Amino acid sequence: MIRTRYIGPTDTKGGRIRATNGARSVTIPYPHELSVEDAHAEAAEKLVHVMHEHDEDRVEYSMTRSVKDDGYCFYRVEREA
C-alpha cells in the first residue's frame, strides 16, 4: 500500500506531496496543473517507479481516499495471468 499526503508550503519550499510505502518515500513539488486526485496519483506513480524500476512488468495500483488523514491510499491491483 502507498499513502500520499499533502505537505503545506513553508518559508523556503512550496507545497509538496509525499508518497510512502513504509520503507521508501518520494516527495514531489505540488503539480498545480493537475486535479487534487491526479496530483496524488502522480506522487504515487513516482514511488511505484522507484520501487519497481528494475521490473519489466508495470505494476498497477487502485486509489482510495484515506479516512485517517488528508491524503490517499493506493492499493496494488493483482492482474490475472
Keyphrases for this structure?
single chain, 81 residues, alpha+beta, five-stranded antiparallel beta sheet, 20% helix
Please provide a written account of the structure.
By secondary structure, this protein is an alpha+beta fold. It has one domain (2-77). Helix content is 20%, strand content 35%. It has 1 helix and 5 strands. The chain has one helix at 36-51; strands spanning 2-7, 16-20, 25-29, 60-65, 72-77. Strands 3-2-1-5-4 form a 5-stranded antiparallel sheet, with helices on one face. The radius of gyration is 13 Å and the shape is globular.
How is the secondary structure organized here?
Layout: E1 2-7, E2 16-20, E3 25-29, H1 36-51, E4 60-65, E5 72-77
Antiparallel strand pairs: 1-2, 1-5, 2-3, 4-5
Helical element count? 1
Q: Beta-sheet strand percentage? A: 25-35%
Look at the helices and sheets and give the structural class. Answer: alpha+beta
Strand order of the largest sheet: 3-2-1-5-4
Order of helices and strands: EEEHEE
Rg, nearest Å: 13 Å
Helix content: 10-25%
Q: Into how many domains do the coordinates divide?
A: 1
Mean pLDDT: 85
- Taking pLDDT < 50 over at least 5 consecutive residues as the criterion, the unreliable ranges are none
- Report the span from N to C terminus: 21 Å
* Extended strand count: 5
Shape: globular
Largest sheet: 5 strands, antiparallel
